[in-house]
Amino acid sequence: MSNDFGFRVTTTRFDEDYTPSTTSRVTTNFANLARGEGRQQNLRRALTMIRRRFNDLADWDNPSGDRYGLELDIVSVELGFTAGEVDREFPLLEVLDVTIVDGWTGARRHGIVGNNFSSYVRDYDFSVRLPAAGRGPAGPVVPEDFGDLHGKLFQAFLDSAAYAERFPQPPVICISVSTSKTYRRTDNRHPVLGVEYQQDDHSLTDEYFAKMGLRVRYFMPRGAVAPLALYFRGDLLHDYTDLQLIGTISTMEAFQKIYRPEIYNANAAAASVYRPSLEEQDFSRTLIDYDRDERSRLAVTQGRYTEEHFMNPHRDVLEQWAADFPEVVR
Fold first, then answer.
1. Residue 327 half-sphere exposure, CB side, CA atoms within 13 Å?
2. Helix extents (H) in the chain
3. Banded model confidence at residue 19, pLDDT cuts 50, 70, 90
4. Residues near 130 by Cβ (< 8 Å), separated by ≥ 6?
5. How many CB atoms sit inside 10 A of residue 330's CB?
6. What value does the mean pLDDT take over residues 202-210?
7. Which value, in Å, is the radius of gyration of the alpha carbons in the chain?
8. CA 120, CA 8: separation in Å to the nearest integer?
């Protein structure tokens, strides 16, 4: 890997007093919740949802359902590199880190980093580059190298000293299942992750995350109404403790209920053969304000910002670095 690329990690506590920084992606779920007159109430309600769901799933030795608390930190990663013998920096990605606090013993346990994932380069790929490629008879025309640079930058971060110094385990990224695919329930059941679903072919998002070196499995936890897509390195079912997995489920299920209630806050659970849809009408809204239209608009804005300030001026440096980076072993 080229020595011209390095990473700087900073963290911001995500609590009811959270205010987005000037360098934070404005489309991130955190920033979306933290705007407007009801911002503090939004944040408080979201955090309450997460805490209650955690205690619901971690129900052993927890008779009152209030033993555990969570501390959430937004992890911001900045890419440093040299271009034209001048040092440059660009905000690369944000993920969420979880700390589990045992109210009985005072013990603090590190959860799983990853959870919610956002990236400027991903905005460029999906909101600028992919639409520019046009559409064919079968749908969007996907460039052959789509996601290559983003995937290599992400892997370089995971393999960096900056990551190893802060995080003892690989990340798990948890997002919504694709509305373009059909999922089928299996007989496999995990005590925390719940029942596993599978699909016949991968979505474009699955393929994009594969270029980041991440595999995917789909699980619907106890009490949930739709499966979650979990992207990971290693062995998802054995590399993490039950409490760590619960931290990821409770956090991301809450976010999904807020911004995709048609799927994750539906009034009926997913059937054995399941095709998620944002056109579903039988669902309940949370009491948390979330501007989904704004998020879509700003994704395009941020994609163009990335094109103007990162991709175009540094294309030669980025392409040379990517060419020297080892290919993903899948």
1. 3
2. 29-33, 39-57, 120-124, 130-132, 148-158, 161-166, 204-210, 242-259, 261-264, 292-306, 315-324
3. confident
4. 140, 142, 143, 146
5. 8
6. 94
7. 20
8. 16
Lookup: tokens for 298: 């700003």
CA-to-CA distance for 81 and 88, rounded, in angstroms?
Answer: 5
Q: Of 39-53, 220-234, 295-309, where does the model show the most confidence?
A: 220-234
Q: Is 234 left (phi over 0), alpha (psi -120 to 50) or beta?
A: left
CA dihedral 126, 157, 309, 81 (to 10 degrees): -150
- Name the band, by pLDDT with cuts 50, 70 and 90, for residue 22: low
Nearest Cα to Cα of residue 252 among 268, 241, 263:
263
Amino acid at 253: E
Handedness of CA 241, 244, 250, 253 (dihedral sign): negative
pLDDT tops 70 at residue 239: yes
- Beta bridge mates, 102: 68
Distance CA 53, CA 305 (A): 37
DSSP letters spanning 261-288: HHHHTBSS---SEE---TT--SB---SS
For the CA atoms of 301, 302, 305, 307, the dihedral, rounded to the nearest 10 degrees, stands at: -100
Contact 29, 116 (CB under 8 A): yes
Could you tell me the pLDDT band of residue 264, with boundaries at 50, 70 and 90?
Answer: very high
Separation between Cα atoms, residue 152 and residue 146, nearest integer Å: 12
Q: Which two tokens stand for residue 215?
A: 């595999």
177 CB burial (10 A radius; 0-12, 13-18, 19+): buried
Statement: residue 220 has pLDDT above 60 = yes
Q: Is 225 exposed, middle or buried (0-12, 13-18, 19+ CB in 10 A)?
A: middle
List the Cα angle 229/154/297 in 5-degree steps: 65
For 119-149, the pLDDT digits (tens) are 999 999 999 999 998 887 777 899 999 999 9
Cα 315–chain centre separation: 26
